[in-house]
Write a structure and sequence with these properties.
The complex is a heterodimer.
Chain A lengths: L1 H19 L3 H17 L9 H23 L17 H11 L4 H12 L4 H8 L3 H17 L6
Helix pairs in contact in A: 1-2, 1-3, 2-3, 5-7, 6-7
Chain B lengths: L1 E10 L11 E12 L1 H8 L2 E10 L6 E12 L1 H6 L3 E12 L4 H7 E13 L3 H7 E4 L2 E4 L4 E8 L2 H5 L4 E10 L5 H7 E13 H7 L10 E5 L3 E10 L10 E11 L4 H7 E5 L2 E4 L4 H7 L5 E3 L5 E3 L2 E4 L1 H5 L5 E5 L2 E4 L5 H7 E6 L2 E4 L1 H6 L2 E3 L2 E4 L2 H5 L4 E10 L1
Parallel strand pairs in B: 1-2, 1-26, 2-3, 4-5, 5-6, 6-7, 6-8, 9-10, 10-11, 11-12, 13-14, 14-15, 14-16, 16-17, 18-20, 19-21, 20-22, 21-23, 22-24, 23-25
Classes of the chains: A mainly alpha, B alpha/beta.
């Protein structure tokens, strides 16, 4: 069954992988990695229909991309408010969004305000009507959570 | 102690220490819903391949919509929903034009493993509400999406009326009548790939605005397009009369003299070309030196699952080269001696299972995974508590 799904939807998988990475060769590698993962566990697909298997491939393609990214290039958050060290490319954006998913909503928003919108603690404090020091403490808490999750260097 | 496996939607908002006490692993879960209270309870459970984890308050009333296939979310559907909707789709989720506020109000969150098609006007709110493992296609106003390769020819053109089209792959190598095209097609957005002749490119430029973003292949005016696996041999070569051949798929060329091939085909555009050894140089020239592989009659190409045993190998004349892109098992009956005698080499990009002596004793170019045959693998019993369910509430 997985062979048929893989053959049938291979182009879609490649297209999705190409949207995650820049190089076409890397996209082929990610999709092939996902296929090998499927082959290792083929009994898992016995009770799935084609759409569920296809959905599984999409999830694993994304997870494989994130794993590779995490291995090769961890994000470094600089707690100095004047510097934003997050790189601004598409791969980092996808990783960044997935990474902050582990945070509670309030901390997620805080990280976005600081590292995506580029606001400093005073500006965020004004928005959220709390003191800059509270913001700094909560940012520190968020970064520690990401560090514990293995997402952040240092 | 046991596992919960293959659940589309697992609602663990009301889980208790007791209901989770036997669960040590969650694997292959489309969406895992938890609450503030159960977050700490599920945090200690090992999780493998979870599509999304969504926190929803345990007393919040939620309606589920799960679909394996194609789900359409439109205004009529959302107006009928009393509670907020949690959507899980494996496949395609098409969101129709509707007021942004309605979508915000009625959709709690969405997880899509596959493709999302939505109007450009809803793209931002969809992305905020969704976890998408797959592509999102935001359609410009009035556009229709065609989820396939489109051959732009007169038959296709005459069927269109002031059409605005969003197309994955467009092949425009038949001669197009400019007036007829301009009358029928107002705008084209190409998402992935365009194969086009120079003549047609001039016509399409005016209606296509994202050419710099697509994978573009410009082919000569007298080209022929084929899809799937195409074989050219001494019988089929006669159907070509000096054209360029464009193949979306696999092209196999065999049993043709090099001069005969040059006479009938002037150039080749294809990602996967296989040919006889004596044709290799000619085919490379025709393909402009792109990826061409030599194919021997004896060689084995595996993309699915193949189990090779001793009797099969002993029945082969001479040595074989094996190209494995799927799962190849060389079973225990194949000794190192037989393997050395019958297998020239293996190029592995998939999963290769064999006895360790065979794996280390024959030439293997490995870009995939090698694994020794281990009989204990099959015998391991998994204590599965719940499996293969659309929705499970713990």
């Amino acid at each position: 069954m997985i062979y048929n799904v893989y053959e049938q939807y291979h182009k879609e998988f490649i297209r999705y992988a190409k949207s995650l990475v820049k190089r076409k060769e890397d996209a082929f590698d990610i999709v092939q990695d996902a296929y090998v993962k499927a082959l290792e566990r083929e009994e898992m697909f016995d009770n799935m229909n084609d759409y569920e298997i296809k959905g599984w491939f999409f999830r694993v393609i994304k997870n494989t991309f994130i794993d590779n990214f995490r291995k090769n290039k961890k994000i470094v958050f600089c707690e100095d408010e004047s510097i934003i060290t997050r790189e601004t490319n598409m791969e980092t954006d996808i990783y960044f969004n997935d990474m902050i998913d582990i945070l509670p909503e309030d901390l997620k928003e805080l990280i976005k305000l600081k590292y995506v919108d580029g606001l400093n603690s005073r500006q965020i404090g004004e928005l959220q009507k709390v003191s800059p020091s509270t913001i700094r403490n909560r940012l520190s808490l968020a970064i520690n959570k990401l560090r514990d999750g293995g997402y952040v260097n240092g | 102690m046991g596992k919960v496996v293959n659940i589309c939607l697992l609602d663990a908002r009301k889980a208790t220490e007791q209901s989770l006490s036997n669960i040590t692993e969650l694997e292959n879960i489309g969406s895992l819903i938890y609450s503030d209270t159960t977050a700490s309870l599920i945090s200690s459970i090992k999780k493998i391949n979870i599509g999304s984890m969504v926190k929803i308050d345990e007393d919040e009333s939620i309606d589920y919509m799960t679909e394996n296939g194609k789900a359409v979310i439109d205004e009529a559907l959302l107006e009928e929903v009393d509670n907020k909707l949690f959507v899980l789709v494996n496949g395609v989720c098409e969101i129709k034009e509707m007021p942004k506020e309605l979508f915000k109000e009625k959709i709690h969150s969405m997880t899509v493993n596959g493709l999302v098609i939505c109007p450009e006007s809803l793209k931002s709110v969809v992305s905020i509400k969704s976890k998408i493992n797959g592509l999102t296609i935001a359609l410009k106003e009035g556009h229709r999406f065609i989820d396939d390769t489109v051959l732009l020819n007169e038959t296709f053109i005459v069927k269109q009326v002031n059409a605005k089209l969003t197309i994955e792959k467009l092949v425009a190598i038949d001669k197009i009548d400019e007036d007829s095209f301009n009358e029928s097609i107002e705008h084209i957005q190409i998402l992935d790939e365009l194969v086009i002749t120079k003549g047609n490119l001039k016509i399409l430029r005016k209606t296509t605005d994202n050419l710099e973003e697509v994978e573009l292949t410009i082919v000569p005016d007298n080209s022929v397009f084929k899809e799937g696996t195409v074989e050219i041999n001494s019988a089929t070569i006669k159907f070509y009369d000096g054209e360029s051949l464009v193949v979306d798929g696999k092209l196999v060329i065999k049993d043709v003299a090099p001069e005969e091939l040059r006479k009938h085909i002037t150039s080749i555009y294809s990602d996967k070309v296989f040919c006889d050894e004596e044709l290799f140089e000619t085919v490379k020239e025709l393909c402009n030196n792109s990826n061409v592989k030599i194919m021997n009659n004896n060689d084995i190409h595996n993309n699915g699952k193949l189990i090779i045993d001793k009797n099969y190998l002993l029945g082969l004349e001479g040595k074989v080269a094996i190209d494995n892109n799927g799962k190849l098992v060389i079973d225990e009956s194949v000794t190192l001696e037989v393997a050395k005698d019958k297998i020239k080499n293996i190029t592995n990009k998939g999963l290769l299972k064999a006895d360790t002596s065979v794996l280390s004793g024959i030439p293997i170019i490995n870009h995939g995974k090698l694994s020794p045959i281990d009989n204990t693998d099959e015998k391991q019993e998994n204590n599965i508590i719940y499996e293969n369910m659309l929705v499970l509430e713990l």
